[in-house]
Amino acid sequence: MGKFDLKLIGGQLVIDLGQTANDRFRHRGYNGKPSIYDIDEICVPAIGTVELSEGQLKKIELAYTNGHKCAYCEEYADKVRPSPFMADMGASMCKGCWDRTKEEYAACNDEHIGDFEDFPHWKEGAE
Fold first, then answer.
1. Which H helix or E strand runs over 13?
2. Is the dihedral of CA 102, 82, 69, 34 positive or negative?
3. Mean pLDDT per segment of 10 residues, for the chain of length 127 residues?
4. Other CB atoms closer than 10 Å to residue 16's CB: what's the count?
5. CA gap 93, 52 in Å, rounded
6. Is the whole model's pTM more than 0.85, yes or no?
7. How many angstroms separate the CA atoms of 45 and 14, rounded?
8. Measured between alpha carbons, how far is residue 45 from residues 3, 6, 38, 53, 104 in Å?
9. 71: exposed, middle or buried (C-beta count within 10 Å: 0-12, 13-18, 19+)?
10. Measured distance CA(99)–CA(116) in Å, rounded
């Protein structure tokens, strides 16, 4: 179990999980999805604390492992997968962008990129 500061940032409740591993000026925060905050954003007074069980913390850690910033909408998501387009090699896409792209691509090109959920590389957490 761990105790973490709860902060109000941009109208959202955020659990401050501390500094990122490779940048002391950025913090990991969790507001229902994995997010990264610059130090000037997250250095606001705590409005409380939250206690997370080991299982809850593992699920949040998996969100950071499987999720990243979507190159298309520029939001952080708990799961992203590689872009289906060769021109965007190395870019990641969230489920919302994937589903919109899938519909548009099928309508324009009559080709299908498959389902977002068919990506086999996500790490799974122990319940």
1. strand 12-19
2. positive
3. 91 91 85 86 94 87 75 82 83 90 83 81 57
4. 21
5. 29
6. no
7. 12
8. 16, 9, 15, 23, 44
9. middle
10. 7
Record the tokens describing residue 37, joined without a space.
């905050």
Residues whose CB is less than 8 angstroms from the CB of residue 120 and which lie 6 or more positions away in sequence, other chains included: none
Q: Is 87 helix (H, G, I), strand (E, B) or coil?
A: helix
Q: What confidence score (pLDDT) does residue 119 get?
A: 76
pLDDT given for residue 125 in this prediction: 54
Structure tokens at 68: 């990243």
Give the C-alpha separation, 89 to 39, whole Å. 31
Most distant CA atoms of the chain, gap in Å: 53
